């Protein structure tokens, strides 16, 4: 059976702990040892196996790349993946490559998948803040339950931050402290919608919003985009066709495409929302990355009566804080929001918010945010130099992520190339909501520990884009 595909291979994946793709590789290794997968046998295509097992293509792709790094298989572009081994049968499977390389030593993976701010050395500053809170007897709230919307002092700091860094005035009484942006998205969607409801959003949207919607039983309807984000006419058609009541949008450095709405576009979106009685949920996690001298106001400032506004401290300063704020318009069903808070977490943890409030008061938060912006600018300049015209220019002077338009096949091949070289990317299908979604790869610049690591990873991605065996120029769109 040398060289034959094994389409019926349906591995029994071990239970947790461990990442799902690692457990899939463990099952492969076990089946190789038992003889179920003999040397030279051809594995099912990644999409076929993903469908058969009910997994995402990205999970299976990562598993195949990890198996190749462990020396379990050899991948040949256009021909498939084959089990390695000492048996002479392997010669048939590897005859496409007369000199197969030796198993690649496993190296540390570089993460270009997780969209977080770059590290700017806050550990010592954090230690001092905790020590100062303890010395002044202010740590008690950190070990107690607090009111559902958060400590008043933290919400006051949040309101000051929104006014200073987002240009949005709000009353602390209208502000909710959340456990980061993802918690805020789940809270708002579960409070405003019921299972089966339709939520409008960009045709390619933030993966966390898609995950929350799927978990809550909501239907996302993707709306076509142009270089400024949501197309007003497309939004108007979608609102009329679906009778949806909620629009989720990322208007500044849209995730994943990095596009930013102009002032006139935001005004058009607000006008359509009023005409169709849409509640706007504005995720503005990246607003502080835009140039203060050239950024339009939030939609919440244009349509305050119908916009819930999300600002994520985790995305701009410190992800470990798990801290975000949501502003509530006057006509929102607050009782449902409060029930949602109790159902999803009862109350926010106090310590991160207390440190943030202290940092807002003494200027540390501004200094940390400025350091994040400076490092982000340097990393974006590096991405421009290495990726060149393959990447779209972001809709702001700084961006923690960039967008590389690629055909679906070229995107998947580039991701496979990167995984085999030890670089993790977001699967191209992860952010797509509809057929109108543009195809490509989101490259996150903040997660690598340092610039040399980012530089190595970007070169690997560039090679994957331009290598004729993975994603040649014909695949760039």
From TrEMBL:
InterPro entries: Aminotransferase_I/II_large, HTH_trans_reg/aminotransferase, PyrdxlP-dep_Trfase, PyrdxlP-dep_Trfase_major, PyrdxlP-dep_Trfase_small, Tscrpt_reg_HTH_GntR, WH-like_DNA-bd_sf, WH_DNA-bd_sf. The keyword DNA-binding applies. Signal peptide: none annotated. Residues 18-86 form the HTH gntR-type domain. It comes from the Bacteria. Keywords: Aminotransferase, DNA-binding, Pyridoxal phosphate, Transcription, Transcription regulation, Transferase. Pfam families: Aminotran_1_2, GntR. GO terms for molecular function: DNA binding; DNA-binding transcription factor activity; pyridoxal phosphate binding; transaminase activity. In the C-terminal section; belongs to the class-I pyridoxal-phosphate-dependent aminotransferase family. PANTHER family: HTH-TYPE TRANSCRIPTIONAL REGULATORY PROTEIN GABR (PTHR46577). This is PLP-dependent aminotransferase family protein. It comes from Gluconacetobacter asukensis.
């Amino acid at each position: 059976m040398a060289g034959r595909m094994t389409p019926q291979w349906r591995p029994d994946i071990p239970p947790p702990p461990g990442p799902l793709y690692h457990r899939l590789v463990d099952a492969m290794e076990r089946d190789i040892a038992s003889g179920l997968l003999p040397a030279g046998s051809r594995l099912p295509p990644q999409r076929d196996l993903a469908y058969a097992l009910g997994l995402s293509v990205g999970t299976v792709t990562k598993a195949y790349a990890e198996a190749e790094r462990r020396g379990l298989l050899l991948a040949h572009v256009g021909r498939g993946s084959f089990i390695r081994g000492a048996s002479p049968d392997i010669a048939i499977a590897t005859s496409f490559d007369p000199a197969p390389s030796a198993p690649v030593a496993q190296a540390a993976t570089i993460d270009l998948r997780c969209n977080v701010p770059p590290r700017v050395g806050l550990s010592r500053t954090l230690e001092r803040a905790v020590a100062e809170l303890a010395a002044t007897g202010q740590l008690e709230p950190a070990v107690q339950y607090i009111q559902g919307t958060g400590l008043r002092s933290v919400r006051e700091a949040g309101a000051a931050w929104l006014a200073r860094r987002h240009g949005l005035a709000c009353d602390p009484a209208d502000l909710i402290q959340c456990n980061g942006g993802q918690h805020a998205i789940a809270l708002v969607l579960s409070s405003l919608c019921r299972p089966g409801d339709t939520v409008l959003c960009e045709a390619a949207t933030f993966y966390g919003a898609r995950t929350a919607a799927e978990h809550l039983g909501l239907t996302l309807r993707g709306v076509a985009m142009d270089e400024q984000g949501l197309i007003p006419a497309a939004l108007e058609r979608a609102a009329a066709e679906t009778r949806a009541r909620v629009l989720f949008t990322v208007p500044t450095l849209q995730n994943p495409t990095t596009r930013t709405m102009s002032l006139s576009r935001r005004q058009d979106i607000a006008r359509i929302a009023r005409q169709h009685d849409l509640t706007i949920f504005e995720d503005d996690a990246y607003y502080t990355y835009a140039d203060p001298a050239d950024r339009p106001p939030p939609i919440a400032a244009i349509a305050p009566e119908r916009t819930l506004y999300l600002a994520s401290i985790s995305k701009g300063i410190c992800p470990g804080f798990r801290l975000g704020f949501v502003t509530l318009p006057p006509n929102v069903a607050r009782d449902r929001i409060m029930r949602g808070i109790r159902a999803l977490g009862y109350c926010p943890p106090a310590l991160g918010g207390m440190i943030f409030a202290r940092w807002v008061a003494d200027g540390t938060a501004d200094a940390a945010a400025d350091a994040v912006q400076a490092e982000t600018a340097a990393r974006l300049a590096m991405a421009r130099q290495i990726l060149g015209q393959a990447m779209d220019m972001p809709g702001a002077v700084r961006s923690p992520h960039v967008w590389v338009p690629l055909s679906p096949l070229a995107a998947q091949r580039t991701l496979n190339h990167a995984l085999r070289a030890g670089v993790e990317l977001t699967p191209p299908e992860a952010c797509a909501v509809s057929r109108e979604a543009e195809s490509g790869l989101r490259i996150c610049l903040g997660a690598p520990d340092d610039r040399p690591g980012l530089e190595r990873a970007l070169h690997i991605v560039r090679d994957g884009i331009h290598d004729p065996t993975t994603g040649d120029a014909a695949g760039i769109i």
